[in-house]
């Protein structure tokens, strides 16, 4: 396994490999857990060479968010990646990716980037689309793999790739959960023991919302009730919405393929989760 932090060096390396091999990129911010590792396993089934990037992207954090305390565990991450026989790990410094961050050109996928998570995190998706675009340009992979846990992010990246004709296939992977249902996340480390015991109620509530959708209840009543229920349990719900899973437009009664999307604070930790429903 090669660990490379220099853009020019990795580009030279990839240029040679690209002539003979199919290359997959798995972008991460590190703090690797089983959710990340399944993306890598999927990548290995789809490509010859797997490149994993580890970069905590400052552009996607707001001024009062957790950029400074975001879990960084490079040594442990590298050990996990070596055990999976990853070919290349890209670990650039911030100054490599953003030599002049204040004047950085940004990539913006309009409208949807300002909804759901984008409403309370105004710069979030612009930071993500900008860094993913840069990573795709640097590595020029045939395939890039993302988790459905960040469903809105996956949707926005697919749209960016279509809109900008980027020659890469975007593949989504299912959500990996803890045994009690909590979606795995690097941020789960922030939870206190008490919060951790409550956290899986977010997943449980999504399951209840799904049951009520299937029972034919009115969507606005279902989401109002679920939001109130979670707030009563100690969460601070940012949003809990039912949308069309293909368009991410608000669901209407004729839609067959839906997705329930939620974000909530539990203490100082922001949790997100989602669940698909087919009627
Ligand atoms: P992050 O390091 O949080 O930026 O995540 C890197 C990639 O891993 C993203 O594509 C995430 O959607 C994906 N990911 C994170 N957690 C999970 C999970 N529990 N299940 C599936 N994919 C995940």
Description:
The protein is an alpha/beta fold and 279 residues long. It has helices at residues 7-18, 34-46, 74-83, 94-97, 117-120, 124-139, 151-163, 193-199, 201-214, 219-233; strands at 2-4, 23-28, 49-54, 88-90, 143-147, 169-173, 236-244, 257-266, 269-278. α2 links the parallel β2 and β3. The longest helix is centred in the middle third of the chain and has 16 residues, at 124-139. The chain is globular. Bound molecules: adenosine monophosphate. Residues 28-29, 35-36, 39, 146-147, 149-150, 173, 175-176, 183-186 line the site of adenosine monophosphate (AMP). Adenosine monophosphate binds next to α2 and β5.
From the N-terminal CA to the C-terminal CA, the straight-line distance is 45 Å
- Rounded mean pLDDT is 98
Coarse morphology: globular
Helix content, binned percent: 25-40%
Secondary-structure element string: EHEHEHEHHHEHEHHHEEE
Can you count the helices? 10
């Amino acid at each position: 396994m090669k660990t490379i932090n220099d853009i020019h060096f990795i580009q030279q390396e990839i240029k040679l490999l690209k002539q003979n091999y199919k290359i997959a990129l798995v972008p991460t911010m590190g703090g690797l857990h089983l959710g990340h590792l399944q993306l890598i396993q999927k990548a290995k089934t789809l490509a010859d060479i797997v490149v994993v990037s580890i970069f905590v992207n400052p552009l996607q954090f707001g001024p009062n968010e957790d950029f400074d305390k975001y879990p960084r565990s490079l040594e442990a991450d590298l050990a996990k990646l070596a055990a999976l026989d990853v070919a290349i790990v890209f670990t650039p410094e911030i100054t490599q990716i953003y030599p002049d961050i204040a004047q950085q050109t940004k990539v913006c996928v309009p409208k949807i980037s300002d909804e759901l998570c984008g409403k309370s995190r105004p710069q979030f998706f612009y930071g993500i689309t900008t860094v993913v675009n840069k990573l795709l340009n640097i590595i020029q992979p045939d395939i890039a793999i993302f988790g459905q846990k960040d469903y809105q992010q996956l949707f926005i990246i697919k749209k960016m790739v279509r809109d900008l004709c980027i020659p890469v296939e975007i593949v989504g992977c299912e959500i990996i959960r803890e045994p009690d249902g909590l979606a795995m996340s690097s941020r789960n480390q922030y939870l206190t023991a008490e919060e951790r015991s409550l956290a899986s109620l977010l997943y449980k509530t999504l399951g209840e919302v799904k049951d009520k959708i299937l029972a034919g209840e009115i969507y606005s009543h279902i989401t109002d009730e679920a939001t109130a229920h979670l707030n009563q349990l100690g969460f601070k719900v940012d949003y809990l919405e039912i949308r069309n899973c293909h368009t991410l437009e608000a669901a209407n009664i004729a839609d067959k393929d839906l997705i329930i999307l939620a974000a909530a604070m539990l203490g100082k930790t922001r949790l997100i989760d989602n669940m698909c429903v087919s009627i």
